[in-house]
Design goal:
- This protein is of the alpha/beta class and 398 residues long.
- Helices cover 43% and strands 19% of the residues.
- It has twelve helices and twelve strands.
- The chain has a six-stranded mixed beta sheet, covered by helices on one side.
- Helix 2 runs antiparallel to helix 4, helix 3 packs parallel to helix 4 and helix 6 packs across helix 7.
- The longest helix is centred in the C-terminal third of the chain and has 23 residues.
- The radius of gyration is 23 Å and the shape is elongated.
- The model has no long low-confidence stretch (mean pLDDT 96).
- This is M20 family metallopeptidase.
């Protein structure tokens, strides 16, 4: 790194520090007012307000999603377009147990700091508000609508208990099984009934019997969301929800086929009927290693220890995987806790803690410095794009 680059990054760090109190207040406000997927109306307004004041062009409701947004600032023409992705939906019944208040705010902070520190930056900085990561796949819908078609590189930063840059993500899909039977008095005339609940239970048994025949990376989780109304009435309608995961979309296709067949046969075995609905397919994560390497260097510049992710297991799924199918993308992590696990009450607390706010500060700095690298160093930019195009060509040739 030459002296000019170092000074440029110091200016970014100073700009983020100048915004620190404002960013803390914004993140904590979102944390204190959790909103579920596709209903993040307050968070969208709060995140776009400082961007609008700073001169970013604001578009709300892109890709026909009411709580999405695009905030654009273009410095000098001729440079790359870098997207900073903001998530801000919460978990049902839990709140911000995944730290999306930090993700959304760090993207906004990075963009504000870049514009303040480098008003003549050659490039376009876009903050994309991506709703419904937890349930619904907002980024998938935005990819399908072409929102990422003109984006050269996309990144975000997720809070975790360790700082990592190359952690993977499984392909996944959610499915709802609705079973229709026939009600009857469970004691005086059970022979006249068809138990939708038995169909549900049979499905869980059948799925469990399949597990040993799947690859080790496959994950199947299910819950019964409706199991009947009274113990003395044969349930005529029951419902279950499942989440299916596999290493790739191709592997997931096999899992889906087997699980759905098990559900159909479970219904047929008791004479019930099955209605199956499926959500959007989340693709596996495609981390751009060149971009991730820059992010790692910038984290370490701040004194952050970056660890290698686990070789196997320990990963979930995210719609960032679909973004990585159409442009260079990364989904790194910033440490905010020593032991709290995401999607738990303990992580809800971590996401508003002092360590969480320090993680927010580092995330904003690292996002901004990495975007600065992409815009100011053509060698970096060309290497990022070359890696992605080679990956894309290889994938298409399969």
């Amino acid at each position: 790194m030459n002296i000019g680059e170092m000074e440029g990054k110091k200016a970014i760090q100073a700009a983020v520090d100048a915004l620190d109190l404002e960013l803390r207040e914004l993140s904590l406000k979102i944390h204190a007012n959790p909103e579920l997927s596709f209903h993040e109306y307050q968070a969208m307004e709060w995140l776009t307000e400082p961007l609008s004041k700073a001169g970013f062009a604001i578009e709300k409701g892109i890709a026909n999603l009411e709580t999405s947004f695009r905030a654009t600032w273009e410095g000098q023409p001729g440079g790359p377009t870098v997207a900073l992705l903001a998530e801000y939906d919460a978990l049902k019944g839990l709140g911000h147990g995944c730290g999306h208040n930090i993700i959304g705010t760090s993207a906004v902070g990075a963009a504000l700091a870049l514009k303040a520190a480098h008003p003549n930056l050659q490039g376009k900085i876009v903050v994309l508000g991506t709703p419904a990561e937890e349930e619904g796949g907002g980024k998938i819908l935005m990819v399908q609508d072409g929102v990422f078609d003109d984006v050269d590189a996309a990144m975000m930063c997720h809070p975790q208990k360790q700082s990592m840059v190359l952690r993977g993500g499984l392909a996944c899909v959610d499915a709802t099984f609705k079973y229709f039977g026939k009600s009857a008095h469970a004691s005086s005339a059970p022979e006249k009934g068809i138990s939708a609940l038995d169909a549900v239970i049979n499905t869980f048994v059948a799925v469990n019997s399949l597990r040993q025949f799947f690859k080790d990376d496959v994950r199947i989780h299910g819950i019964i969301t409706k199991g009947g109304e009274a113990t003395n009435v044969v349930p005529d309608y029951c419902e279950a929800e499942f989440l299916l995961r596999a290493e790739t979309v191709e592997d997931l296709t096999i899992v889906r086929r087997k699980v759905y067949a098990a559900a159909r046969h479970a219904a047929e075995a008791v004479g019930a009927k099955l209605e199956l609905t499926e959500g959007l397919v989340y693709a596996e994560r495609n981390n751009n290693k060149t971009l991730a390497s820059l992010f790692k260097e910038n984290l370490e510049l701040l004194g952050e220890e970056v660890i290698e992710p686990p070789k196997k297991g320990g990963i979930g799924s995210s719609d960032i995987g679909n973004v990585g199918q159409v442009t260079a993308a990364i989904h790194p992590y910033i440490k905010i806790t020593d032991d709290a696990i995401t999607h738990t009450p303990e992580f809800v607390e971590a996401a508003k803690s002092e360590a969480g706010m320090q993680g927010l500060n580092k995330a904003a700095k690292t996002l901004a410095m990495t975007a600065y690298d992409v815009c100011c160093n053509q060698a970096y930019f060309h290497a990022i794009r070359k890696e992605f195009e080679e990956w894309k060509k290889k994938k298409q040739s399969k």
